[in-house]
Amino acid sequence: MIRRTSIGQLLAACIVVAVLFVFGTPQASAHAGPPDAVHAGHQGMDMSMPMRDATPNHQSQQAIAVRDKEESEFNHHLAGLLVVLAGLFLLAETTLGQHRTWTRFAWPVCFLVCGVFLLVFSDTELWPFGPQSWWYGLTHNGEDLQHKVFAVVLLTLGVLEIQRARGVLKSAWAAWAFPLLAVFGSVMLLFHEHHGGMHSVDHLAVMRRVQAEHLHFAIAGGGIGVVKGLSELPTPWKAIFTKSWPLLLIVLGVLLLRYTE
User: Fold this and answer.
1) SS3 state of residue 132
2) Other C-beta atoms within 10 Å of 72: how many?
3) Per-residue pLDDT reduced to its tens digit, 208-242
4) What are the extents of the domains in the chain?
5) Omega cis (within 30) before 34
6) Using CA atoms, how far apart are residues 51 and 57, in angstroms rounded to an integer?
7) Any idea which fold 9-16+61-257 has?
């Protein structure tokens, strides 16, 4: 019976991933502006003026923009991979129960690793990778501050859930830490600042796409928090909620893996 349940849950997870990849693939036409509009933007330009693209300063800005884009996408993709793994470990935990105690610790470790990486590597303009101090970055750049808050949320979730898995933390409030922090992080995503792509020609389209992607993250994260909270209540649907929120974690992970600027 355990094997059949395990196979069913893994198939459900695979179906979720497949649907997201097949029906959620971004279309290239959505990212590219109309050719006529681009051509019109060049009409009336004084060709005797020096092209801005040829200046060393602009080339330097473009190089920085490309580096920031690659760094941001890598951070989101790594976070997505860890979130997918956490969801799979949770499905294994609900299936195997006490037969494989390591699964109870595996998924919180994914959150810990993600939190540590985000805390250290999310903003490389800060020390020790860049010239800015943490104090300056966190007080002058809202995006940096939000990244570090997300990192603290992930680290807190990882530590609390590991303590619960060990049986050390048995307080009633501990069961609600995950749902509340998940909802808190999702609300923060609605106000997330993102400065990437500001130097590109189609920066407005880039910003709209990034905002839409973060809205999807917020919806998925809010759903995770709500369903996880419902799974902690003694209701007739407790078993359903317990097996549903790991699937939502996998959905969020796939969305992060597909993130692009």
Assistant:
1) strand
2) 22
3) 899 999 999 999 999 999 999 999 999 999 999 99
4) 9-16+61-257
5) no
6) 12
7) 1.25.40
CA torsion through residues 156, 140, 132, 202, sign:
positive
Give Cα 150 distance to the centre of its chain: 10
Tracing tokens 């048995």 back to the chain, one arrives at: 170
- Measured from the Cβ of residue 211, the count of other Cβ atoms closer than 10 Å reads 13
Q: What angle is formed at CA 211 by the lines to CA 65 and CA 147, rounded to 5 degrees? A: 65
In the DSSP assignment, the letter for residue 27 is P
Q: Read off the amino acid at residue 190.
A: L
H or E stretch including 60? helix 56-96
CA quadruple 180, 209, 247, 87: dihedral sign:
negative
Q: Identify which of 105, 106, 61 has the alpha carbon closest to the alpha carbon of residue 82.
A: 106
* Mean pLDDT score of the chain: 80
DSSP, collapsed to helix, strand or coil, labels residue 214 as: helix
CA dist., res. 213 & res. 208, Å (int): 9
Predicted structure pTM score? 0.75
Query: Is 210 in contact with 197 (CB distance < 8 Å)?
Result: yes
**Residue 30 has what DSSP assignment?**
H
As a whole number of angstroms, the distance between CA 261 and CA 72 comes to 8
- Residue 99: beta bridge partners? none
List strand residue ranges (DSSP E) for 126-248, in order: none
CA distances from 172 to 169, 177, 211, 233, 239 (A): 9, 10, 36, 11, 19
pLDDT digits (tens, 9 = 90+) for 61-83: 778 778 888 999 999 999 999 99
